[in-house]
Amino acid sequence: MLRKTYAKIDGEKLTKNIKEIKQKYNDYTYYIGVVKNNAYHHGIKCITDFIEGGINYLAISSLEEALEIRKYNRTIPILCLEPIDLEYIDDCVNNEVTITVESIEYLEKLLQINIYSTLKIHLKIDSGMHRLGFMKKEEIKKAKEEIDASKNLQLEGIYSHFATSGVMDKEWDNQIEKFLEITSLINLKEIPIVHFGRSLTLVNHEKIPFCNGIRLGIIMYGYSQSKKEGSDFKSKLKIWKRKRFQKKYHCSKTILENDLKLEEAFSLYSTTMSIRKVNKEEKVGYNSYLLKEDGYIITIPIGYADGVTTSFQNVYIKDQAYPIVSDSMDMIMVFSKDYIEIGEKVEIIGPNQSMKKLVGKTKKNAYHLLNDISNRVVRIHERKQEKEEIYY
Ligand SMILES: Cc1ncc(COP(=O)(O)O)c(C=O)c1O
């Protein structure tokens, strides 16, 4: 590691998160770990931690990502959530990648290809998101019949994706109804894996009776929606309003409280690189931050190109908060009243500044904040005594 800026990924925490989820929600057969976008920017090596915790299927969004997984694991089933260009179907067969078939047109073209061995398929239903998926029950019936009659295609699964959060949500139940309507001409029980929900569905709703699989994304990485309702007047009013909403719109029950104990596995560090003495009323950085008192400016080699801006507000050095007064592409500057040695460890995301806190400060969600931490930041994947530096 040449530039002293790195993300630390705690593999044991990832494994523990999966065990905790599986212990509390144990009525699924298939726990499908969504590891697209380089495992939500934690690095694909994390699949080993997830599998150890009990994830038994993985989902990604491109063949490239599937092939990256195969460097670590040859056997775990992998579902590609986006349709794969038909010219690469042989690569899917060779690497045992399950494909998504999301339209009858795609299937007809697939049937023209001479496939030499088994290719597993999951059919995708458009239950309201209008991004991908079958919209007509007659087409799903036809698709099932054609796949069943084919020699090397195997219909292993069927799924959809919620477009909405499911909390105080009139649309949520409609999406389930739509799914059931589009699949009404086939027997769902004949399809081995039926999956619909994502992290929020798991914690906010009772299990969907016809599903035996759940796709877990953000929750696996430790970002829970864990809540405990208070007993004060405001909380009671909120609960009452929610119940009234449910009754008024005949929505299915939403569960907002859970006691999942998850831990964020991603932390981000850098190092103090330069220090200079500055005086009150001097200006700092591109935005000419006006100093209110005498002190020191400490420059840290992490910037907006790495995903860190003044919106983070603080960094921590030896557990003490220092304000970020300026940012640039590659560096941020923080103010300190006291001198700080060069080479000190700087925490940007970690025990003092959790992602939860950053979501509040930046008004971005955890998906976007994680995605913003660019691939230029080396990931150090740690598990017990093992440490691996991963560069992209
Ligand atoms: C099709 C699909 N399933 C599951 C997920 C996982 O969602 P979450 O991270 O909210 O669990 C995603 C995330 O983008 C997705 O696109």
pLDDT averaged over residues: 95
Which overall shape is indicated by the principal axes computed on the Cα atoms?
Answer: globular
Could you say what the CATH architecture of the largest domain is? Alpha-Beta Barrel
Cα end-to-end separation: 13 Å
CATH superfamily of the largest domain: Alanine racemase
Please outline the helices and strands.
Layout: E1 6-10, H1 11-24, E2 30-34, H2 36-41, H3 47-53, E3 57-60, H4 63-70, E4 78-80, H5 89-94, E5 97-101, H6 104-111, E6 119-124, H7 137-149, E7 153-159, H8 171-182, E8 193-195, H9 199-204, E9 213-216, H10 233-249, E10 266-271, E11 274-278, E12 283-284, E13 289-290, E14 295-300, E15 314-317, E16 320-327, E17 332-336, E18 345-349, H11 355-362, H12 366-372, E19 378-383, E20 386-390
The structure holds pyridoxal-5'-phosphate.
Describe this entry's structure for a reader.
This protein is of the alpha/beta class and 392 residues long. It has two domains: 11-249, TIM Barrel (Alpha-Beta Barrel); 266-390, Lyase, Ornithine Decarboxylase, Chain A, domain 1, CATH 2.40.37. The protein contains twelve helices and 20 strands. It has helices spanning 11-24, 36-41, 47-53, 63-70, 89-94, 104-111, 137-149, 171-182, 199-204, 233-249, 355-362, 366-372, and strands spanning 6-10, 30-34, 57-60, 78-80, 97-101, 119-124, 153-159, 193-195, 213-216, 266-271, 274-278, 283-284, 289-290, 295-300, 314-317, 320-327, 332-336, 345-349, 378-383, 386-390. It has a ten-stranded mixed sheet with strand order 11-14-17-16-15-18-10-1-19-20. Helix 1 (11-24) packs parallel to helix 3 (47-53). The protein is globular. The model has no long low-confidence stretch (mean pLDDT 95). Pyridoxal-5'-phosphate is lined by residues 34, 81, 161, 198-200, 215-219. Pyridoxal-5'-phosphate binds next to helix 9 and strand 9.
